[in-house]
Amino acid sequence: MTPPRRTSIDVEVLDPRWLGSLRTARAICRRAAEAAIDGCGTRLPDRVSLAIALDNDAAVRRLNRTYRGYDKPTNVLSFPAAKGDGQSLGDIVLARQTVLREAREQGKRPADHLTHLVMHGTLHLLGYDHEQGERQARRMERLETRLLAAMGIADPYA
User: Fold this and answer.
1) How much is the pTM?
2) Residue 89: which residues within 8 A CB-CB, separation 6 or more?
3) pLDDT for residue 144
4) Strand 76-80 relative to strand 47-55, pairing
5) CA-CA 20 to 30 A from 54: which of 10, 40, 96, 110?
6) Residue 155 resides in a domain
7) Closest CA to 120 of 77, 63, 73
8) Alpha-carbon dihedral angle through residues 26, 94, 105, 142, given to the nearest 10 degrees
9) Is position 59 within any domain?
10) pLDDT value of position 128
């Protein structure tokens, strides 16, 4: 029998207004990341870790400009760990204002939208990449939809 995987998920609230909007943001992030890790079908070490930062649009805009060349905020950024970094998958950063605005505009519960974005970011850290062609995008979307459905969350792409 395979021993259970040990997953360490560090959620740091860099913008405390996250907790005013979603008191359970830390738990939502952990649950979403664990669901992605457990359901991805990727062979992983027995111990894995990742860090999630809940920040604001200004901070995410700086990161997006520096690392992707886009001078605007985005909802979620993923930064894979360097090769040979052991059990760390990497880091995820989310922008509070963008995440909440998108949820409102799309008629989604903020908790459900945050769950989806953390799962999406975690899957990027696990090697999924929707920017590598239509086939990869469909594969990633199908997996997200299936994992979210298991959590009682509607298809975010419908």
Assistant:
1) 0.92
2) 37, 48, 49, 50, 80, 81, 122, 125, 126
3) 95
4) unpaired
5) 40
6) no
7) 77
8) -90
9) yes
10) 87
Range of the domain at 52: 6-150
Q: Provide the sign of the torsion angle of the four alpha carbons 37, 40, 156, 102, taken in this order.
A: positive
Q: Which of 19-28, 43-52, 91-100 is predicted least confidently? A: 43-52
Angle, vertex CA 20, rays to CA 15 and CA 24, nearest 5: 95
**Number of folded domains that form the chain:** 1
Residue 1 belongs to a domain: no
CATH number at residue 19: 3.40.390.30
In a domain, 157, yes or no: no
Distance CA 100, CA 134 (A): 27
According to the model, what pLDDT value does residue 44 have? 84
**Tokens read off for 47:** 């111990």
Is there a contact between 28 and 115 (Cβ–Cβ < 8 Å)? yes
Residue written as token pair 């979403």:
32
Judged against a pLDDT cut of 80, whether residue 81 lies above it is answered with: yes
Helix (H, G, I), strand (E, B) or coil at 156: coil
Residue with tokens 């886009």: 70
More confident of the two residues 5 and 64: 64
